Amino acid sequence: MFSFIRSGVALLILAAALPAHAALKVLATTADWGALATEIGGDQVNVYVATSALQDVHRVDAKPSLVARARTADLVFATGAELEIGWLPVLIQESGNSRIQPGSPGYFEATSVLTLLEKPEHFDRALGDIHPQGNPHVQLDPHNIARVAKALTERLSQLDGAHAQYFQQREKDFDTRWQAAIQRWEGEAAPLKGKPVVVMHRDQTYLCQWLGLNQVAAIEPKPGMPPTAGYLGQLVTKLTASPPRVIMVNAYNDPKAANWLSDRVHAPTVVLPFSVGGSKEAKDLFGLFDDTLNKLLAAK
Amino acid sequence: MMSCKALAALLALAGMTTPLLGHAADDVASLRAELQALKDDYHKRVDALEQRISTLENAPVGGLAEATPAPEPAPAMASAGGGGGGTGTAFNPAISLILTGNYAHIDQDPATWRIGGFLPPEGEVGPGERSFNLGESELTLSSNVDPYFSAQMTAALSAQNEVEVEEAFFRTLALPEGFTAKGGRFFSGFGYLNEVHSHAWDFADQPLVYQAFFGNQFKQDGVQVKWLAPTDLFIELGAETGNGSGFPATRLSKNGLNGATLFAHVGGDYGDATSWRAGAAYLDQRAEDRSFETVDEFDLPLTNAFTGKSRTWVVDGVLKWTPVGDPNRRQLKLQGEYMQRRESGLLTFDTAGSNLTDDYSSTQSGWYVQGVYQFLPRWRAGLRYDSLDSGTPHIGLVESGELPLSAFPLLLPANPDRISIMLDWNPSEFSRLRAQFDWDDARDSGDRDQAFRLQYIYGIGAHGAHKF
């Protein structure tokens, strides 16, 4: 009887003590940032991922469930550079949460610590859906992940000073494993260097840049514009003469146009995970790059 | 006396500034030194940046050269902490302009369009005019004011060369505990479609129930407070009050507020593919000499007026089903709203002539349901059904025998309804072309009207963000 009461009291004390150690609530806009927040934050963060690898992060709905998550978030971890501009501002505005307003410590954009590629010289929507601050699809260069990890660690430490050391320790550990992995990936990918590839949209630019792939054509004539029959015809003419090694498609893309092209120019289509969760193997950030490279190397 | 005070103040000021000036003179040297240090610092940074640029320019394009990590961006950039700047240049507000227009083919004369059984609302209701029509051009400017407030204005420029302030409001950014307050002129937050700007509607016009009950959309000059619950389930509660300047209310000839609006929304996800939101609202308002143009039994134009209470219930629901995750490939959006209004007070017949007044009460309702299916990238098709029930109003002037019922041809009981279909093509996020066809049985004459419209909507400027 006494032990019953004692354990009850212990439970009560535990319950009362819990809020003091409540993990930071992180609302990550993509599965990649969610995975990175988990790598650094460990059990001191509670991560909710707003989108899946099967979605185009530029075009998702500002769902009520996401507004509700923004309400309780301590940190919004976004890509920035206008990638989430169609919905994230609505979440933040509707959240009634002053901690995550842009400019607050609770709002962090990965691109704020990166140098972006393809920063347009002319801002004209006749060029397609371009982003004035540069190409925001930064996650497929692992060096970018390492840089964002460092900045995120600082931000988490700022928000939860009591666990600053814990975050820094985890970042150090992650960085050691990550740098080793980068070395391995770069070694494995050496045969791909300079190989001609066709991409879907300009969201594989960072991957191509990192691996030295030669991006010879894109299936989208302009960013965000689906291909027309005439444009695809031109691609066939252009690519039949010198077929690419692969046609790269992201998990969230409709592969129809790529498959059509693949049949005509005799180059294989490879569906890449693009984001954590984009394939069975891409369970975390390491898996994302392992699987991406495996699929690129295996394509014949 | 005043001048004495002013003189004293001046003297005091002079007394204060003299030592300040002396102090400043002492500090000039140290300020110069600081300025020099700043200049040196900037020179160093600019040199470093130039160095980086030339390194990048000389680097082989797209090689494995990245193995040595690129230098970190300047700390000034890194500490920017987001915000991103958007499309607004420096401190300029984000600007967006929406252009709309249509070509309409309408069987019956649009000038005679009136919803049967309902007091005519204010606002631009009905099928619009025939042939080519410029729609409203909406100019929106928005920006954060400071860390505590943001502000937004939408001006609507009409085809008749009039400018209307459609919305102009401030909103809080830093209230605690999930509260947000808004003040100024804004679309009320009740229901689903009331807050949606016309360029984001899924059909070329509002459902009949919104046209009859609110003259398209309800707005007034006032304040709104919203609270969002700290739960994973989306629960939002809101309250509004204001001057009553929007139909069915009117401004009152006294100080204070006109009525209140209360609303609640609940929402969430069902599995990975389905999201939903449902809501309920209650509007308690007053109208004072709310006049409307109508005709009498001899079809002669005259003006009647209503004074009294107007109370409206609204229930709304929306569901989106996105089977492949990407709403641009395939998405089904279903929505519906039901409204019921009770009005009671006094009805005045022919305010400019016989000016007879007696009591009046009515209970009216209406609803719509619509579905829009994105079946291919860029292409959407939609179907909408509208229905209204006018009920049988109690008209004191008729029941007392003073006037025949035929003196109020618009108040004869009716059940207006309408079916609309639409197809739209969206070449990009910024353009939309739409075709819509209506079978309209809403007219008080009882004759069916058929309308065909081709509509364009173009958006330029800042990239918009839309609510669910």
Commentary on this structure:
The complex is a heterodimer of chains A (300) and B (468). Chain A is of the alpha/beta class. Chain A has 2 domains: 2-184, 3-Layer(aba) Sandwich (Rossmann fold); 190-298, Rossmann fold, CATH 3.40.50.1980. Chain A contains 10 helices and 8 strands. Chain A has helices at 2-17, 31-41, 64-72, 88-95, 142-159, 164-188, 205-211, 229-241, 256-265, 285-298, and strands spanning 24-28, 45-49, 75-78, 107-109, 196-199, 214-218, 246-250, 269-272. In chain A, strands 2-1-3-4 form a 4-stranded parallel sheet, sandwiched between helices. Mean pLDDT of chain A is 91; it is low at 12-20. Chain B is of the alpha+beta class. Chain B contains 4 helices and 18 strands. The termini of chain B are far apart. The model of chain B is unreliable at 6-25 and 58-85 (pLDDT under 50). The interface between A and B is large, with 71 and 71 residues.
Characterize this entry briefly.
The complex is a heterodimer of chains A (300) and B (468). Chain A has 300 residues and is α/β, with parallel strands linked by helices. Chain A contains ten helices and eight strands.
Shape label of chain B: globular
CATH-defined fold name of the largest domain in chain A: Rossmann fold
Give the CATH superfamily of one domain in chain B. Porin
CATH topology of one domain in chain B: Porin
- N- to C-terminal separation of chain A? 71 Å
Task: Please state the second-level CATH architecture of the largest domain in chain A.
Answer: 3-Layer(aba) Sandwich
Biggest sheet strand line-up of chain A:
2-1-3-4
Task: Report the sheet-strand fraction of chain A.
Answer: 5-15%
By DSSP (H or I, 4+ residues per run), the number of helices of chain B equals 4
Largest sheet of chain A: 4 strands, parallel
pLDDT below 50 for ≥5 consecutive residues: which ranges of chain B?
A: 6-25, 58-85
In CATH, what is the class of one domain in chain B?
A: Mainly Beta
Largest sheet entry of chain B: 16 strands, antiparallel, barrel
Rg for CA atoms of chain B:
30 Å
Helix-strand sequence of chain A: HEHEHEHEHHEHEHEHEH
Strand order of the largest sheet of chain B: 1-3-4-5-6-7-8-9-10-11-12-13-14-16-17-18
Overall pLDDT confidence of chain A: 91
Q: Could you list the spans of chain A in which at least 5 consecutive residues all have pLDDT below 50?
A: 12-20
* Largest contact between chains: A-B, 71 and 71 residues
